[in-house]
Write a structure and sequence with these properties.
Elements (H helix, E strand, L loop, with lengths): L1 H26 L10 E2 L2 E2 L1 H6 L1 H17 L5 E3 L4 E4 L12 E6 L11 E7 L7 H12 L5 E4 L5 H14 L5 H11 L7 H14 L1
Parallel strand pairs: 4-7, 5-6, 5-7
Antiparallel strand pairs: 1-2, 3-4
Helix pairs in contact: 4-5, 4-7, 5-6, 5-7
C-alpha cells in the first residue's frame, strides 16, 4: 500500500506537470490554440485543471513581468487604435472594442465594449487568409479599438500591422511594422509572423 501511495504522489508531482507542458508543446504542432479551449473570454474549467501546472507558472510569470516592466501598458497607434498588453480591470482606456489575441489567458471585458477573440499561441503566426479576415473584422468593429496579447509584443504587432495594411494606413509590411514600433518599441513580430504578413498582402495584390 505504501508503494502505491508513493507512486500516486510521484505521478501527481511529476506526471501532471509533465503532461501539462507536453500538451502545450504539442499544441505548436497540432491542434494549435485550441489546446486551451478558450470559449469567449474564458478558458474552460476542465482545460484549466488539466493544464494547471502550466497555468500557475504562466500567470506568475505574466504578473512578474507586468510588475517589473517599465514599459507602458498600452500605446496609441493612430487616432482609433491602441495596442498593448493584457490589462487588469482598472487599467482599460476608453475604447469601444477589445481584441484579445491571447489564447492562454482569461480576459477582462469592460462593460459596454465589443469583445473580439482571436486566440493565437504565443509566438505563433496566423495563416495568411485568416490574418486578412481578422484584419477586416477589426477594421469594421466600433472604434476606438484596443488590440492586445499577453505582453503586447509579437502577436499584437502582427495583427495591428495587418489592420494598418487593411485600412490603407500603411502601403507595405515594412511601413506597417515601422508605425507599430514607433508606437510601442518592443512590439516586434518574429520571422514567422512577419512572413504571415508578407504572404497575406502578397496574395491580395
Amino acid at each position: 500500500m505504501a508503494v502505491g501511495v508513493i507512486d500516486w504522489r510521484m505521478l501527481l508531482v511529476f506526471g501532471w506537470p509533465a503532461l501539462s507542458w507536453a500538451l502545450v508543446g504539442f499544441a505548436y504542432l497540432w491542434p494549435g490554440a485550441g489546446i486551451f479551449e478558450k470559449r469567449g473570454a474564458r478558458l474552460t474549467w476542465h482545460r484549466k485543471l488539466l493544464l494547471l501546472p502550466h497555468m500557475v507558472l504562466l500567470y506568475a510569470t505574466w504578473h512578474a513581468v507586468r510588475a517589473l516592466s517599465r514599459e507602458p501598458a498600452f500605446a496609441r497607434l493612430g487616432e482609433d487604435i491602441l495596442i498593448g498588453r493584457r490589462l487588469l480591470p482598472g487599467e482599460f482606456p476608453a475604447v469601444r472594442t477589445v481584441v484579445d489575441l491571447a489564447a492562454e489567458l482569461d480576459e477582462h471585458i469592460p462593460a459596454g465594449t465589443t469583445y473580439l477573440s482571436c486566440p493565437i499561441l504565443d509566438g505563433a503566426p496566423l495563416p495568411p487568409d485568416v490574418l486578412r479576415q481578422v484584419a477586416k473584422r477589426i477594421s469594421a468593429a466600433p472604434a476606438p479599438v484596443y488590440i492586445h496579447c499577453a505582453q503586447g509584443h509579437g502577436r499584437t504587432a502582427m495583427v495591428a500591422s495587418a489592420v494598418l495594411l487593411e485600412r490603407g494606413v500603411a502601403t507595405s509590411v515594412d511601413a506597417a511594422l515601422t508605425l507599430v514600433r514607433e508606437a510601442r518599441p518592443a512590439a516586434r513580430p518574429n520571422r514567422a509572423q512577419v512572413q504571415a504578413l508578407l504572404d497575406a498582402w502578397a496574395q491580395v495584390r
